[in-house]
TrEMBL record:
It comes from the Bacteria. Residues 19-261 form the ATPase domain. It holds the Pfam family ATPase_2. The keyword Cell membrane does not apply. It comes from Shivajiella indica. Keywords: ATP-binding, Nucleotide-binding. GO terms for molecular function: ATP binding. This is ATP-binding protein.
Length: 373
């Protein structure tokens, strides 16, 4: 991988050098898959789930133990979309850039209604996904399963943004997946998703077809001391310096969310040689300003009561007694019953979450901005 100048990388496929720790998580993931367990990794956005899975897959590929396929389900709205994503991932891995196409792959794409065409200039193959094949999803999954089962090495598939399943046209996708997984026990699965509530609904509720089909792994923030060493080393090896106290400030301000810490460090690295607390203040303001167009949409999405409550939670973070008259009066929130309804709705939308009895605005940057409104 080409060395980027800024060591605080913001994409989620990063080489070992720029990846901070997660040693215990990597060990535990390996032990799960080596013991034939499927996994479901969940946690709030930006903690590092996708990045961890990419890193894990790089390690598995290097060890030569598994063949890995990674699909991001965010653009998918149906089972057929997932099948197409899998077909593309298979083509990218086993077909693109290869001189010939194996007969098993030809057979697979025939069943999927896809075709491989050769570019007349480069003579390289390219995949053409056919038109919609409604009603053929189960045959397609079977063909995919047969193809993957026959690979020499064991195949592990990551399905990222799996909470997307909630928006699918078909409501039986979870049960189709369950049957597919049962039929092809050779294939390992890593499901990953951002909305803990939705992900646990899919994998931890007795009534869900995917109940008990994967080990549930919550991803927690990186530890401050791990992150401190990582950040200081990268500053130091580039002739720069950042004091521990500033890293602690960044960590608290970011609530330990990896993406935001990386973003702040990326800015500080670019702008400073000797980082001071004032530099962090300046950069955090700059970052918030970039998000203002996004934040401006929030008041339009919410009722007035919800918006006012959200603002009040950001100011109090963490808020311990949302129904106390002191809180209601201080922020002029009106009747306790109105606030109670608004709070339930904000939690349902996962804009607010509760931890150890305290309430937080889920989006850290939104929260930091609203605090000063
Ligand atoms: N261990 C890590 N070391 C360094 N940067 C990381 C690490 N984990 C995540 N990141 C950074 O944080 C960002 C968010 O991580 P991501 O994996 O996309 O989170 P999630 O999938 O949980 O939403 C990534 O773009 C990456 O730059
Ligand atoms: Mg992700």
């Amino acid at each position: 991988m080409k060395s980027p100048e800024n060591p605080f990388v913001l994409t989620n496929h990063i080489g070992k050098k720029y990846f901070c720790n997660r040693e215990n998580e990597l060990k535990s993931l390996l032990s799960h898959v080596e013991n034939n367990r499927n996994l479901m990794i969940y946690g709030w956005r930006g903690l590092g789930k996708s990045t961890l899975v990419h890193r894990f897959f790089d390690k598995l590929e290097n060890k030569g133990q598994f063949e890995t396929l990674f699909i991001d389900m965010l653009p998918a709205n149906s089972l057929e979309d997932v099948i197409k994503l899998l077909a593309s991932a298979i083509f990218e891995k086993y077909g693109r850039g290869k001189p010939g196409i194996s007969s098993s792959m030809n057979k697979l794409f025939f069943v999927l209604g896809a075709s491989i065409r050769f570019d007349p200039y480069s003579d390289m193959p390219d995949l053409h996904l056919g038109p919609r094949q409604l009603g053929r999803e189960e045959q397609s999954l079977q063909a995919l399963g047969e193809f993957l089962k026959e690979r020499k090495k064991q195949v592990i598939i990551a399905m990222d943004e799996f909470q997307q399943l909630d928006f699918f046209e078909e409501k039986n996708t979870a049960s189709v997946f369950r049957n597919w997984m049962l039929k092809y026990p050779e294939i390992r699965f890593v499901f990953c998703g951002n909305h803990p509530g939705k992900m646990l609904g899919i994998f931890a509720e007795k009534s869900s077809p995917l109940y008990q089909s994967a080990q549930l792994i919550p991803l927690l923030p990186l530890q401050l001391d791990h992150y401190t060493g990582f950040i200081q080393d990268h500053f130091k090896s580039n002739g720069k310096y950042i004091p521990t106290e500033v890293i602690e400030m960044i960590f608290n301000w970011s609530r330990g969310q990896t993406y935001i810490i990386q973003l702040v460090c990326n800015y500080l690295f670019a702008q400073c040689t000797n980082v001071r607390a004032e530099d962090f203040m300046k950069v955090s303001k700059e970052i918030i300003e970039q998000y203002l167009p996004v934040f401006a949409t929030f008041p339009k999405m919410l009722t007035k009561a919800q918006w006012n409550l959200l603002k009040a939670i950001a100011k109090e973070e963490p808020l311990f007694n949302p129904m106390s008259s002191e809180f209601l009066i201080k922020h002029q929130l009106g009747a306790a019953s109105t606030v109670s309804t608004a709070l339930k709705s904000l939690q349902k939308q996962e804009l607010v979450f509760e931890e150890d009895g305290g309430f937080f605005v889920q989006e850290v940057l939104l929260s930091r901005w609203m605090k000063n409104l």
